[in-house]
Amino acid sequence: MLDAIGVDSIEALFDEIPSTLRSTIEGVPPGLGELEVMRLMQARARQDGRPLCFLGAGAYEHHIPAAVWSVISRGEFYSAYTPYQAEASQGTLQSIYEYQSMMTALTGMQVSNASLYDGATAVAEACLMAVRAHRRSRAAHVLLPRSVHPHYRAVARTTAGNQGLVFEERAALDGGCTTPAALAAVAGPDVTAVVIQQPNFLGHLEDVDALTDWAHERGALVIAVVNPTALAVLKPPGEWGAKGADIVVGDGQPLGCPLSSGGPYFGFMSTRLELVRQMPGRIVGRTVDLDGRSGFTLTLQAREQHIRRGKATSNICTNQGLLMMAGTLYLALMGATGLERVARACMARTAELVTALGALPGVRPAFAAPRFHEAVLQFDRPVAPVLEALAARGIVGGYDLADHYPELGHALLVCATEMRSAADIAAYAGALGEILRGARAA
Amino acid sequence: MSLPLREQLVFEYSQPGRGASGQWPAAEPAAPAVPEALRRRSRPALPEASELDVVRHYTRLSQLNFSIDTHFYPLGSCTMKYNPKACHAAAMLPEFLGRHPLAPASLGQGFLACLHELQQMLGAVTGMAAVSLAPMAGAHGEFAGVAMIRAYHRARGDAARNEIIVPEAAHGTNPATASMCGCVAREIPVGADGDVDIAALKAAVGPKTAGIMLTNPSTLGVFERRIGEVATIVHEAGGLLYYDGANLNAILGKVRPGDMGFDVIHLNLHKTFATPHGGGGPGAGAVGVGERLRPFLPVPLVGRDATGYRWLDQRDLPQSIGRLTGFAGNAGVLLRAYVYLRMLGAEGLRRVAEYATLNANYLLRRLEQAGFEAAYPGRRASHEFILTLKGLAHGRGVTAMDVAKRLLDLGFHAPTTYFPLLVPECLLIEPTETESRETLDAFVGAMSAILKEAAEDPELLKRAPHHMPVRRLDDVRAARELDLAWKPAAA
Amino acid sequence: MSEVREDRRYARSHEWARELDDGTVEVGISDHAQHALGDLVYVELPEVGRELKAGEACAVVESVKAASDVYAPLAGQVVAVNTQLAGAPELVNQQPYGGGWLLRLKPAAPLAAADLLSAGDYAAVAAE
Predict the structure, then answer these.
(1) Closest chain A C-alpha to B22 CA, distance in angstroms
(2) What is the pTM of this model?
(3) For the segment B226-243, what is each residue's pLDDT rounded down to a tens digit?
(4) Domains and CATH numbers, chain A
(5) Which candidate among A66, A396, B140, B384 keeps its CA 20 to 30 Å from the CA of B7?
C-alpha cells in the first residue's frame, strides 16, 4: 500500500503536521484483550450489585420484553448511520415513521419528530419553539412552575438562557400541585408559554384542563411534559382543556430503555400540524419513489442545521435513534392493553408502598391529591441518613427532596413500579422500620 | 444482503384483541382509580400484534438497511469504524443496566470508576486539563463549548465579545451553535489550498471576538498547517479557540488539540471511539478544557477524593455553565467508549490515526489512478479526502448524487455528498482504520465501473439505484404533501 | 437562461418590486432565484399590517435543499399576502413574476426613489 501511495513509511503521511506539535500517547494503559476487559467490567459491575430500587424522579424501572433489545441489537439497526441515503435506510426510516405514528396516538397530537436527546432537553427545545412560534408575544417569558422536574428546569435555563428567554419558576405548590392562582401570582403581563408536567415531579395529578384553559386565556402556548406510561390511563395532552396542549414533550425512558445510570434515553416531542415547521429535530415522511411505490425519507430538512446553518431551529443533529427504536418495539409489543396493565400495576404497587411505609411511626404521606406512581412521604427526621442506612442494606429508598423542595421539610419521593413485588415492599418496610427504631444492621 | 422485501406497516398486522399478552402484568382491579375528569377515554391507536409478528416485522425492516456490520460505509466526517461487540456486552451487564441514575454513589463505585478513568484518558489523549462527559451528542458538546467561552468572557467583565469566527467550510452545526449561544457567526474564507485565509482572519479578529471554531484536520480533509499562527492571532485578540473533534480520528496519538493551542474541544464518541450510530443516535459529545475554562464545565462530572468517587455538581463548580442533561448524559454510550479505549490501549490508539491515514491516502491514490479528480491534489489526505466530480457533471450531466446512488446498487454505502459546500459536486470519503485493503480495492473497482457507466450509459446513473428496496424518492412531494404519521381509518 | 422582466426593479438579493395601479408595490423573487432554490415546498409570509424596513427579512421560501430569507426591497407596510401559496407553493416556480407574487406593500416612499437595480443591471448580477 505504501508503494501505491509512493511513500516509504506511514510516518511520511504525517509530514504536513509541524514537528513541534507531534506528541505520543500517555495516560492510557496497555490494551486488554476481550477476555481481560470483560473480567474487569464484570468485577466493576459486581461491585455495584443490584439493589432494590424504589426511586423514580424521572427514570423508572420497567420490565423490558427480551425481544426489544434482541432485535435492536442486530447490526443492521445498531451499526446503521443516520438515514440520509433513504434507499439504503428504509428499515430505519419506516421504523421512525411508525414511532412518530405511535407517539401522536399516545399524546393525542398530530405530528411527532424522530426524538430528541432526553426529556430535559426536549423541554428546553419546546420553550425555544414556543417563543419562535408565538407570533404575538414579544416577551419570551415562560412559566416553569416548581411542579416541573428540577433537572428539566435547570436544563431549560442552561440551554435557552443565552437566547433571551426568561423563566419564571416561583409558582408555589398547593397541596403538591400547581393551581392557576399560583401561576397568576407570578405571571407577568405577557406570558409566551406555560409548562405543565403530568403527573408532576412529586407524582401528583394536576388539573390539566383548568391550567390549559387558564394559559390559553392569557394568550400563552401550553407545553405539556408527560410520562408516556401514564398516558395509557390519563387524558392525553391533545385533549387538555378546550383547545388541547400546543407542544408535548417528555422522556421516553419508560418505554423499553433500561435505567442504565441515566442514559441513553430519548426525548419525545409532538405538536399540532400548524407548528410542524417550528419543531426541531428530524422528521420522516412517507412519499413515493420513481416507480410510484411507497417509501420513507427524511423531510422538512430545510429547517435543520446542515442547511439553514445560522438560522436553524436548533443545532441538533442526532436523534436518539436506537433508543427511539427500543420505544417503538416496546409499544408495538405491549400495545394499548399492555401499557394500561403496566400503568395500573404501578399505581397499585405505589399505593401499597405508601400504605406499608406510612404505617411506620414518623412517616406519613405529604399530600392527599391523587397520584400516579410516586408519592411524597414526610419524615420526622432528616432523610439523608435514612437513605444511607437503606443503601447499606441494598435498598435505594427514594429521592431526598431536601435540596430542591426545602419547603416540604424532611421529605422523600418514593416510587414502586410493576417490578416491585409484595415481598419487595415488605422488605423495604421491614428495613425502614428497623432503621427508624435505631436498630443496628444485622 | 437479503433480497429487497416489501414490508407493510406494523399497524397492518393488528387484529382486535391480539397482543403479546405474555408481556403484560396481571390486571389490577383494585388499583386506585384515576379521577373521572383526567381519565383517558379512548384507547391509543397502538398495534395489536403478536410477539412473533412484531419480531418478524422489525427483523425484516432491519434487512432493508445498510450498516457497518453489513457494508463498507466510507462516509466522510462520520468515522464509520467497526463497533466492537464487547463494548455492547460490557455496557449491557445487568448491574450497569439496572442502576438508577440517582442511586447513591456508594452503590455505584464500579460505574463511577469507569467514567472517571474515561475522563482522565480522554483528557490525556487530547492534551486537555479536564473533561465533562455530560453532553449527549457532538452538537450538544459544541453548545457546551461555546457557552463556556461566553461564560469565560462574561466572568472577566467582557460581555461585548459575541462574535464566533467560523471558516466557510465548517459543518452547519457550528454557526447554528453560535446562534444558540446568543452569538453571531462570522465566516472567513478558506484558501485554495484548503488552509484558513490568515489575512482574512487578522481582519476578522478584534474586541468583539469571543473565539474561533475550527476542525483540524479541516472539513476539507487537510491539516491546518498554520494552526500555531491561527492560535496566536486569536489569543492575542483576546479570543479563545474551540476545536470541533469530528476529525479526531486523523490525529489520535499524533497531535493533541491542547498542544495546538485549543482552549476547549468536543469529542464525538460515536465517531472516534466506536460507539454505535444506532440509525441516528445515541451519540456522546464529551467536552475537554484547558485550565482557563475548567471552572465553567457543565455538571455533573465524576470527582475522586479519599472516600472514593462521587458526582461533582454546581456546589463544587459554582461557575459551571450548568446542567445540560436530565441525568449524567448517555451513560451507556460512555461505558462503551471506556471499554473501547481499554481494549485498544496506548499502542492501539496510536494505530488508529496511522491506519486511518494510510487507508485514506491509499484509496485516494488508487481513485486518482482510476481517473477521479482530487479536490486538493497537492495535499496529503488526512483520514479522509474529497473528490470533485464536476468534470463528470459538465461532461455527462452525471452528478455526485448519481454516483452515490449507483454505489448502493454495487453494495457500498455512498460517501458523504455535497459537504463541504465549498467544493462543487463533491464526495467526501473516509475509509477508517478498520477496513482491509481488499475492501478498499473492491471499492475502487466499483467506482471504476461507475466511471465507465458514466461514459457509456449516463442515464443508468441518473436513475440509480435500481436494485434497492426503493428507487429514488420524491422529496418534493414528501415536503409538500406531509404524511408524517399513520392514522387509523375513520370508523 | 433565466428570465428578467423589464417592467420591474430588482434587489441584489434577487427580489423584484413593481408598482401596481393602486399605488401599492408588489414583491416577489426572480426566475433566477426560483430556479436556484428548486421546487418550493413551503412559503412563510408576514402578517398583514406588519411594518417593514428596507432590507428586512420578511418571508421565507423553502425547498427541499434550502430555506432562504426574502428581504423587503423597500420600506412599507404589508397590505396583502398571496394566500394561494399556502396550498400551491409551486406557483412561485411556475410564475415567479405573475401568480407567484409574495406580498404587497404600501410603500413608505415612492418605488422610483428606492435603491434598486434596473432589469438590465440585475440581469448582469444574476449571470455572475
Answers:
(1) 9
(2) 0.94
(3) 899 999 999 999 999 999
(4) 52-62+335-436 (3.90.1150.10), 66-329 (3.40.640.10)
(5) A66
